[in-house]
Amino acid sequence: MCGIVGVLSAQPAAPLMMDALRRLEYRGYDSAGLATVTGGTLARRRAAGKLAALQEVLERDPLAGMSGIGHTRWATHGPPTVENAHPHVAGRVAVVHNGIIENHAALRAELVAAGATFESTTDTEVVAHLLDREIADGVSPEQAMARVMPRLTGAFAFVVLVAGQEDLLLAARRASPLAIGLGDGAAFVGSDAVALAPLTRRIVYLEDGDWAVLRRSGVQVFTGDGTQVIRREQVSTVSAAMIGKGNYRHFMEKEIHDQPEAIAHTLHAVIDPGTGSATLPPPLDDALGVAKITILAAGTSFYAGLTARYWMESIAGIACEAELASEFRDRRAVLPAGGVAIAVSQSGESLDTLMALRNAKSLGQRVLALVNVPESTIAREADGVLLTRAGPEFGVASTKAFTAQLTAFLGLAIALGAARGHIDEGEALRLVIALEGVPGRVATVLEAEERYLPIARDLARARDVLYLGRGLSYPIALEGALKLKEITYVHAEGYAAGEMKHGPIALIDEHVPVIIVAPSDGWFDKTASNMAEVRARGGRVVLLTDAAGAEALGEGADHLVILPDVAAEVAPILYAIPVQLLAYLAAVEKGTDADQPRNLAKSVTVE
Ligand code: AGP
C-alpha cells in the first residue's frame, strides 16, 4: 500500500525522503513523488513506475529544500500515471495520502462547482483543494486542518506541506497507520517506524482520528474534535540494522531462512524454556471461561487461523471458527458471551482485520491481537496482545510471519488445553517437546534447498498447479497455492484433498503438477486414495511426505520430497517450508520479482 514520508530537517530533504521511501518499497507501489518548500514555494518531482525512475528525474532536475513530503503510490483511484502520482498540489497546498477518502466524489463536485480545476483522477486531490480554499479564506494552515478533517470520511492517513511554511507539516490519520518521528531540531513522519529507522527511533503514534502539527521544535497532537492531547513518545523496536537482505538475493529468501530463529523466538514468547509450561495472555488467561474462539484474518494470516482451528478443537477442546476478516467485518455473527476473537495480522494494519476486530468487539467479544508489529493499530485496539517474534518482514509474500503465527497458535492451544484439563500434563509435555524440536527440523529442510530446484523449474513452466492436503495439511495446501500465484503469476489452487473428486479433478491431465502435502498422520490413508485418483488421470504428482509416507507411496510420485519425521501436530509448521521454497525458486526461475510482485501490497490498508 502507499508509503508516506515527511521531513523537517536541517539537511536537504530529497535524499532523506528517497532513502525513507526505499525502506517503504516493500509495501508495494507503482508510482512515486516528492515535494519540497524551497524559497517559499512548492516544488515537485514525480514519476510512474519504481523509485529508480524518480531518481532519474531528480538527477536531471534536482529538488532543493529542507522541508518536504514524499510518497509511493499503490493505485486505487486512477491508473499509475505521473498525473495521478502524489504529492497532489492545489494552490499553496501539497498532499500525500494513503487510504481512501470515501466521500471524494461529493467533495469534488462541490469544489468543481466552486471553480476548482482538478489535475488527477485521485480521491486525494480533494484534500489539497479543501485545505487551499480554507487558507485562501484567510485562516492558518492549522485552522484549515481543523475545519477540513470533519468533512472527510473513510480510512486514511495524509501529510500536508504548505507553500511559505518551511517549518510546518500537518499530518492526520483515521484507521490507516502513521508514525511521527522526533529528532534533534528535526521532525519526521512516515507510514511506519521502518521508514524512519535511520532518522530516529523516538516515535509518537497517532491514535485513530488524530491530526498533528509538526515543527522542528516539536509536535502538537489534536483529536478529531480539535482538543489538544499528549501522545506518549516510544522508542521504536526497529533499528536500521534490522533492515537488509544480508547475502540473500531477495528479502523473501532471507525471511525463509530466518525461520528457525523466528519460530524459536516466538515459541519462547509462549512457552517458558526453563519449565516447559505455556502461559496465556489476556483475554485467554481465564481459560475455563472462554466460550468460543473466533479467528479473524486475511490471506496467509487466515490460513494460520484455519490451521489453528484444528488445534483449538483437538488440543484445547474449544469451539473455534476461522473467519475471513473482509467478510466478517460486516456480519451480524451470533457469538456467545465469553467468546474471544483473535485478530491475526503480520503488519497489525490490515484494514479488513482491524474492521473485523471492531465488529467482534461490538458483538461482545474480547479480542486478542496476534501480530508481528508491537506498535500496530490492531495491537493497540485489542484487549490483549501476543507478539510473534519473527522480526520485520519485508517480502510481500509472507513466510516467517506465517510459521511464527502457527507456532504461537500451537503454543496457545497447548496452554489452553492444559489449563482446561482437556489434555493431561504428559500430553502437554509431549507437544511442547515436539514444538521445541521444530526450529532444528526447519533448519534441516533449509539445508537441502537445492533439492527443490528441479520441481520449481517444472512449476515455473506450468499453466495450472493444484495443491492438495487434508486436515492439518489443508491450510498448507492453500498457503502453497497462494505463495505460488502471488510471486510467479502461475495459476494455482489449494484444495482439501477429499474435495478434489467434487470438481477440481476435471482439471487434471499430464500438464498439471499436483502437489500433495501428506505427512504420515491420521489423514494419510485417505490422502493416498486421492493421490491414486490423480495418477489414474495422468496428473504429475509432487509428494511432500516423511520417511514412512515415502515408503508407502513414494513410487507413485514424479517428484518425492522426504521431510524429517515430526509429531503430526507440528507438521504444518514444517511443511510450510517446502511450499515456500518451491514458490520462491519458481519465481527466481521465471525471473519475476519475488519481493515486490505486481499489483500486490505488503500491508493492505484499503477495503
Ligand atoms: C501473504 O503472502 C500475502 N501477501 C497476504 O495474503 C497477507 O497475508 C494479507 O494481506 C494479510 O496481511 P497481514 O498479516 O499483515 O494482516
Explain how this protein is built.
With 607 residues, the chain is α/β, with parallel strands linked by helices. It has three domains: 3-242, Aminohydrolase, N-terminal nucleophile (Ntn) domain (Glutamine Phosphoribosylpyrophosphate, subunit 1, domain 1); 246-436, 3-Layer(aba) Sandwich (Rossmann fold); 449-593, Glucose-6-phosphate isomerase like protein, domain 1 (Rossmann fold), CATH 3.40.50. The chain has 20 helices and 25 strands. The protein is globular. The mean pLDDT is 93. Residues 298-301, 345-347, 350, 353, 396-398, 486, 600, 603-604 line the site of 2-deoxy-2-amino glucitol-6-phosphate.
Mean pLDDT: 93
* CATH fold-level name of the largest domain: Glutamine Phosphoribosylpyrophosphate, subunit 1, domain 1
- The global form is globular
Numbering strands along the chain, what is their spatial order in the largest sheet? Answer: 3-2-4-1-10-9-11-15
Which ligands occur here? 2-deoxy-2-amino glucitol-6-phosphate
By CATH, the superfamily of the largest domain comes out as Aminohydrolase, N-terminal nucleophile (Ntn) domain
CATH architecture of the largest domain: 4-Layer Sandwich
Approximate helicity band = 25-40%
Q: How many structural domains can be distinguished in the coordinates?
A: 3
How far apart lie the N and C ends? 11 Å
Structural class: alpha/beta
- Regarding CATH, which class of the largest domain? Alpha Beta
Query: Which regions contain 5 or more consecutive residues with pLDDT less than 50?
Result: none
Main beta sheet strand tally, sense and closure: 8 strands, antiparallel
Proportion of residues in β-strands: 15-25%
